[in-house]
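step: validate -> pass
step: tokenize input -> pass
step: predict -> running
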Amino acid sequence: MREEARRERQRKTHRELYARFAAGEPQGLATPATPELTGGQLFSGADSAESEPHHEPLPAEYPEAQPEPLHAAAPAAGAVKARKKRSKRRRNLVMLATFLIFALVLAGSFYFIRSLVKQFNPDDYPGPGGQAVEFTVEDGWGPALISRKLEELDVVASDKLFMDALADSDAENLVIHPGTYPLKLQMPAAEATEVLVDNRPDKVFYIGLQANMRLPASLAEIAKGSGITEKKLGELANQPEKFGLPESVKNLEGWLHPGEYRFALDTSAEKVLSNMVDSTKDALAEAGITDLDEGYKALKIASILQAEATPKDYEIVSGAIQNRLDPANVETHGLLQTDSTVIYGLNRYSLQFTKEEKRDASNVYNTYVHRGLPPTPIGSPATSAIKAAANPQDNGFYYWVTVNTQSGETKFTSNYDEHLRNQNEFRAWCDANSEICK
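step: predict -> pass
step: emit ->
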């Protein structure tokens, strides 16, 4: 009887247990009154130290209480684990993206701040510099403009660095004079400053004189390139004896030879002018004239050739001038009758002048009134004009007219009436080209 009662209690416990398990409430079961069989021994999948789990099948009359196999819960647990893994992966990706964005923002901020710092504190070139260049400082340029030009040329890294170096310079004189300086590309600002403000002999200034320039224009160009005052240059130009010229020479008009010149910055005004006069003496000697009085006459003729003719006609016009200078000629009776000398005396460049001006004897350069050569040359002739003046062509011409100043077409004649026809051709051309014939 006791055995039967025990079995009845077990069956009751099983029914209750499986009923709750089937209903999804496996927890919270009451502990069985007897220790022979526990819920842990019935449903645990783990090994027991005391005995193997014992599953006694329920009687057939309780089919509703039959438990589903223990492995039926496994798919739900796997799905939860997969969801957790996906969630964790998403969190990791979000964190990685956030980190990358932060890193990019940080890097961008760094380079932006660095560029701002460089803008206000640029890096200087380390030196010693690269390709050699010549840097020309024009008259009237100040430090600010010079610094910008140096940066544009890539001589210095920035104009700010040059201005700072100029302010820190130990030179006694910080003035940068007009002239041409030897520099290098990408050189330290302090070194560029040293070259520009230190008046060492290896620094030069540049002067370029064109042919046919009159004395005042030549002196202005020299002053612009050298920094020497026009007043000082003008005083010297009126003392031709200082340059070894004869008493017949009035001033340095015609003696400042055209060309390009380079001088050390400390070169004196007298030395600059002397160099140009010597170049003219060399040109005369090359043409075969060593006597400077004869050379002065040649310069006067050469300056007229330079003003009135084209290089291809220099020797022809030179021969015609020699014919006119002969007082025995019956065409001009020793009068040159050149327009270029008249306008020089009028201090004008226009080829046009009035009939009154043509008869004006107060103009000492009026060769329609005064016989022979003008008092001085009327400009600085080039070497080619000097050679033609020293070696005129032997011809019978007395008259010449350039009938087209653009093409340089010039017509020559020994007959005055034909000369008048040539003049009318020139006037007609001027009427059709009034913007040129002013």
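step: describe -> The chain has a mean pLDDT of 83.
step: cleanup -> pass
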